[in-house]
Design goal:
Layout: H1 7-25, H2 29-85, H3 88-109, H4 116-137
Helix pairs in contact: 1-2, 2-3, 2-4, 3-4
Amino acid sequence: MKTNFLKKPITLIFAGLFSLAMMTQCDSPSSTENTANEVGEETEEAVDEVGDEMEAIGEDFQAEQAEWETKLEDKISELNNELNEASAEAKDEIQQKIDKLNQQLDKVENSTEESWNDIKGEVSRTFEEVEEEVDSNS
């Protein structure tokens, strides 16, 4: 999972906070060492928490992505069955729907966590349009 990309900026932020704490709260060398240890521990805990949150987001993305892949594949399969039984004039229309869904399936399969929200909206709209068209033709 690619969660390390946030650790560097967060570490830099906490390093700045550490420096500020060192300048404002430390009167003696021993208090400086204690404060440094505390800030270091807090920084490490915060970075770990962010990493855990990013991992959870990644798992949610993967679950949603897999759900949409299954949904699209099932609908494509259903339409392929209809295509085999359709009249010549209906075949073109059904094939267009299959093509639309295959394009969306490609987008889902190639999506990243960063692009997922945009792609998910587009896929959802296309899927609903195809569903409505199928329902209206039934």
